[in-house]
Each structure stands twice: as C-alpha cells, then as structure tokens.
Amino acid sequence: PLSAGVLLVGGGSFLNGAHDLGQKIFNVPCKRAKPYNVQGTAMATKNRPLYASLIGAVRYAASVQKSVEKPSIWKKFMKLVWGGDYE
User: Fold this and answer.
1) Beta bridge partners of 32
2) Whole-angstrom distance, CA of residue 33 vs CA of residue 48
3) 3-state secondary structure string, 10-55?
4) What's the confidence (pLDDT) of residue 21?
5) 7 in helix, strand or coil?
6) Who's near 80: CB < 8 A, 6+ residues apart?
7) What DSSP state is assigned to residue 6?
8) What pLDDT score does 46 carry?
9) Could you read off the pLDDT tens digit of each residue along the chain, which spans 87 residues?
10) What separation in angstroms does the CA of 6 have from each of 10, 19, 63?
11) What are phi and psi of 45, to 5 degrees?
12) What is the pLDDT of residue 71?
C-alpha cells in the first residue's frame, strides 16, 4: 500500500483523466509533480510537470556517472610498448 500518494510526471500527466485514473487505481491522492531546485532553465520550464521526468533522469545520470580512472605510468608504458590495454 502507498501511504503518501502518487506523483504524475512528464507529458502523460496532462492526458485527460490521468489524474482521476491514478486516484482510482491506487486509491490514494494523486498530484502532478513539478521540478524543484532547478537552475539554468527558462522560468516557463521550471514549474511545469512536463519536464519533471526529464530533469529527474538527468539528475540521476549525473549522480551515477563513473569517475574516469587515470592510468598509471606503468600502464601507459606497457600500452606504448605492447599496444592495447595491459592489466
């Protein structure tokens, strides 16, 4: 069971009856999500549910981005001598 409710995001949240259908299916309050704490975008896009899923996906991708490991001098030398990756 969901205790807090359901958030609708993206363009699908604007479909006719999406709000009512969400409440009927999950039997909890249903609201459209708005992106928050967003910088660098126009004011027209900041408070619209249409962009909430996209902004969330970009934030998630940025949080799980791998750090690039710098190869050691030994690995650089072996790559120069033998070619390819040497482990």
Assistant:
1) 8
2) 8
3) CHHHHCCCHHHHHHHHHCCCEEECCCCCCCCCCHHHHCCHHHHHHH
4) 92
5) strand
6) none
7) E
8) 60
9) 667 888 888 888 888 999 899 899 988 888 887 777 777 666 666 667 777 778 888 888 877 766 556 778 888 887 888 776 545
10) 13, 9, 24
11) -95, -15
12) 73
The set of residues, in sequence order, having a beta carbon less than 8 Å from that of 75 and lying 6+ positions away, is: 85, 86, 87
The pair phi, psi for residue 32, each rounded to 5°, is -85, 135
Query: Tokens 């790559």 correspond to what residue?
Result: 79
CB 55 within 8 A of CB 38: yes
Q: Which amino acid is at 31?
A: K
Looking at residue 16, its pLDDT comes to 92
